Amino acid sequence: MIANVTAPPIPALVQQQRQFFNTGCTKPLDFRIAQLQKLKEAIVNYEDDIVKAVQADLGRPAFEGYFEMAAISEVSLALKKLKSWMKPQKVSTSIEQFPSSAWIQPEPLGVALIIGPWNYPFQLLISPLVGAIAAGNCAILKPSEQAPQTSAVVAKMIRSVFEPHYVAIVEGGVEVAQQLLEEKYDHIFFTGGTAIGRIVMAAAAKHLTPVTLELGGKSPCIVDTDIHLEHSARRIVWGKFLNAGQTCIAPDYLLVNRQIKKPLMSAIKQYLQEFYGPDPSLSPDYGRIVNTKHFERLTALLDSGEVVVGGQTNPDHRYIAPTILDEVSWDSPVMQEEIFGPILPVLEYDRLEDAIAAINNRPKPLALYLFSRSREIQEQVLASTSSGGVAINDTVMQVGIPKLPFGGVGESGMGRYHGKASFDTFSHFKSVLKKGLWFDFKWRYAPYTPDQLKQIKRIVGG
Ligand code: NAD
């Protein structure tokens, strides 16, 4: 393939990809494997540039920058498993179908559009691409304009490896996204906020295009009394303040049993100090808010309760200290929308049933966290709530298990990916029946006899 070819205008680009897809070139296992290998090499070659770009866009510490490299393990898994994922799966057939065989055969969908957000701007664009390539599709990527340095590096990387008629990248903001959404695709994979998810789904509906929507929401974190205090506090602080709270599955708020609240709050304070020092603005391990709009939105939320830790801000550096808010009610502004920043409101409960009812009264979250050693409570929460995923006695780490499909439910999204689920998302599972011609069972042909009537009753009756 010739690399570094500039992409044509959007409608022509989509048409070129469709033409290329129709040649059938993207379908063989060898082709897919070769492309995945090229992608993996490119990611490894661009690793430093990517980490630096993410640092520049988000003020993210290098350690957290390397989370973007999770895309490499996605490619490695696909390279290892693709042959078995692509294998048709045989299913049994009934005697009435004799002589026959039947199977489910995965096939690529065609041309996929992948739109990414800014918070993990590399990983959330490239991981879905791994699924699209593994499943044999062409793809157009639209990175977020809010992480411009990362967008530029990804564009350079993609253009150095793929021709635009196979995998293309179109940089730009809302207008470009809207232009892209006017075209017809075979799948749209969108990661971003719920409001834009609705716009994407409406645009997809015009062409009856299936969508995967990886959205956000307010992910609750329930804390029971039966916990290991230090480990729980440390895991909560890490998951919440990682990337300055700009993680889709960060615990959005704490729902704490009143009896454990005081010790938990002091343990959280202690670990905030331990992680980021007495002044987190000086810590090399604490991130910044992505842009002024989000900085202003978040600072306005600081009035939603009593600041017990943090609260300091600096607009010049878009810095907001890790903040714990007490005296917050369900009606407070901070409880109305996904926070997506370093502010952790704390609500209390006396009866677990009330905490569960409060969660169930609101849109289904992307993640739900429960800290409790009690098996009974773990089972009760699992059985009586619905969320995209759950972690018990940890936060965020569920995303790192490729065999656990990742996705939302209800307003937190639809569809899932990671590992084999990514291959499945970008595949159509075609059902195939193959009949033999050496024999022809007559039970279904007219003129129908009373015997056939009896037979059909038996067949449909199961
Ligand atoms: P966003 O919805 O503002 O933007 C996402 C993408 O949509 C960007 O590429 C943007 O250019 C594009 N876009 C913006 N306006 C558009 C429009 N009118 N029409 C079409 N496209 C448009 O999201 P964001 O601010 O980049 O990311 C934050 C949100 O994403 C949070 O809600 C977070 O929870 C969610 N998120 C979800 C996941 C997940 O895996 N479920 C991961 C990361 C972020």
- What multimeric state do the chains show? single chain
Spatial strand order of the main sheet:
10-13-14-9-8-15-16
CATH superfamily of the largest domain: Aldehyde Dehydrogenase, Chain A, domain 1
Radius of gyration equals 25 Å
The proportion of strand residues reads: 15-25%
CATH structural class of the largest domain: Alpha Beta
- Summed up, the domain count is 2
Please give the alpha-carbon distance between the first and last residues.
Answer: 54 Å
* Overall pLDDT metric: 96
Question: Structural class of the helices, strands and pairings?
Answer: alpha/beta
Shape annotation = globular
The CATH architecture category of the largest domain equals 3-Layer(aba) Sandwich
Low-confidence stretches: 1-5
The counted number of beta strands is 18
Briefly note the CATH topology name of the largest domain: Aldehyde Dehydrogenase, Chain A, domain 1
Binned, the helix content reads 40-55%
> What characterizes the major β-sheet?
7 strands, mixed
Number of helices: 15
Bound molecules: nicotinamide-adenine-dinucleotide
Give a written overview of the molecule.
With 462 residues, the protein is an alpha/beta fold. A 7-stranded mixed sheet has the order 10-13-14-9-8-15-16, sandwiched between helices. It has a 6-stranded mixed sheet with strand order 5-4-3-6-7-17, with helices on both faces. Strands 1-2-18 form a 3-stranded antiparallel sheet. α9 links the parallel β8 and β9. α9 packs across α10. The N and C termini lie far apart (54 Å). The N terminus is likely disordered. The structure holds nicotinamide-adenine-dinucleotide.
